[in-house]
Structure formats: structure tokens, C-alpha cells
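Key result, reporting period 2: structure in, sequence out.
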């Protein structure tokens, strides 16, 4: 197989307590490639002093972005769905299975992460009352009802939707809420994170950033 996939991430992110290492979103793309056996390389853009070439590929100066031959994509969700088109391991080819995979991938972004990220960020302020608490718990409660009866979120098997959903749910504060109140969510995340492809993707990302410490 010709290796045309290149995942771009930062050259370094801070380490230590509360470090984002292992959580930076290029891990989603690494995980998908590992699951599907898609050959890929990882290249870096500066964490500091982001230049015009970075903004040309990612207009907000974020990562990841993906290069596939002449195609360049940004946003992890778009990149994951692009990868899913390359392998049936990531998304079924029957219309119903594909539709379920698409809707749950987008749901992880629009119904879960859209709430969980600002809920988490407000919580960093140390405020006693988070105005998004009820909204967040309601979203987790509805998702919990779905996962009480499913091993995986879509199409009766592991898909790219699980990569997106599990990664959104594994953020420590979100996972802590799941552990306390939503056992089916915690079990779901545990299943996903036990997969060898995730373990390798996370370890490789941590090693990538650690190399730049010296």
C-alpha cells in the first residue's frame, strides 16, 4: 500500500500534572488508522509561533489536519469520516449501517462534545454552580439509556463513531461523572480504551510529545 496519509499534530504540548498529552485530538486519527491498518506518518507543526503554512491547512491554527495525497482536511470529525470511507472496518458499506455511523459520529460532536467542552471549561473556574450542569447530565443520561442495550454505538459493531464518542467521553471530568452516575457509559469507555489500536495510538502520541522535552 502506498503511504499517502499524513497526520499533522503539534511538535510539543506541555507535560506534567493535567497535561493534554494522550488527549490531543490527533489521537483520534491515529486510532482510526491503527484500527483499519491504514499506513500513515505523523508530522509536526509548531505549538508556538504558528506560521502561514499551518493556517493555510487549518484556518484556526489548531490540529489535527490530514493530508491524503492532494487532499487536505481539517477538523477531527471530517478527517475521521474521510478515513472511514477508506475502510469498511471503520464504517459499514450497507446504507443503514453507514447512516447509523454517520449520525452517531456527528452526535458525538454536536450533542456531547458541544456541551462537555464548555461544561468542563466553566468547571475550571472553581465555581460552585455550573450553569451547564443540568444540560450536561441530561445529555449523558440520554446516552446512557442508549448504551444500556448496546456494546457499540452504531451498526451493531465497532465503527468510527465509537472512536469519536469514546474520545469525547474519556476526558477525565466527563469520565468521572460517568463513573459516579452512568455505569453503562463507563463500561462503554472502558471497552473502547482497552482496544489495542487505541492503546498504541495514545502511547505513540505521548512519546511524540515527550521527544520534544529535551
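The corresponding designed sequence is given below.
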Amino acid at each position: 500500500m502506498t503511504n499517502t496519509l499524513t497526520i499533522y499534530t503539534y511538535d510539543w504540548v506541555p507535560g506534567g500534572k493535567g497535561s493534554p498529552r494522550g488527549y490531543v485530538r490527533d489521537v483520534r486519527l491515529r486510532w482510526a488508522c491503527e484500527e483499519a491498518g491504514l499506513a500513515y506518518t505523523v508530522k509536526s507543526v509548531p505549538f508556538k509561533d504558528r506560521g502561514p503554512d499551518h493556517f493555510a491547512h487549518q484556518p484556526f491554527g489548531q490540529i489535527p489536519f490530514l493530508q491524503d495525497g492532494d487532499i487536505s482536511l481539517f477538523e477531527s470529525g471530517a478527517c475521521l469520516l474521510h478515513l472511514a470511507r477508506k475502510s469498511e472496518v471503520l464504517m459499514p458499506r450497507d446504507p443503514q449501517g453507514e447512516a447509523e455511523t454517520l449520525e452517531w459520529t456527528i452526535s458525538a460532536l454536536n450533542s456531547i462534545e458541544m456541551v462537555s467542552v464548555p461544561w468542563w471549561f466553566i468547571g475550571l473556574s472553581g465555581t460552585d454552580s455550573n450553569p451547564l450542569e443540568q444540560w450536561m447530565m441530561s445529555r449523558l443520561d440520554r446516552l446512557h439509556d442508549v448504551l444500556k442495550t448496546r456494546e457499540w454505538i452504531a451498526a451493531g459493531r465497532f465503527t468510527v463513531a465509537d472512536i469519536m464518542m469514546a474520545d469525547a467521553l474519556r476526558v477525565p471530568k466527563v469520565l468521572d461523572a460517568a463513573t459516579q452516575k452512568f455505569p453503562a457509559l463507563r463500561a462503554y469507555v472502558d471497552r473502547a480504551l482497552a482496544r489495542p489500536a487505541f492503546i498504541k495510538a495514545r502511547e505513540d502520541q505521548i512519546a511524540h510529545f515527550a521527544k520534544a522535552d529535551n
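Strands lie at 5-10, 40-45, 65-68, 71-74. The chain has a mean pLDDT of 96. This case is discussed further under Risks and Mitigation.
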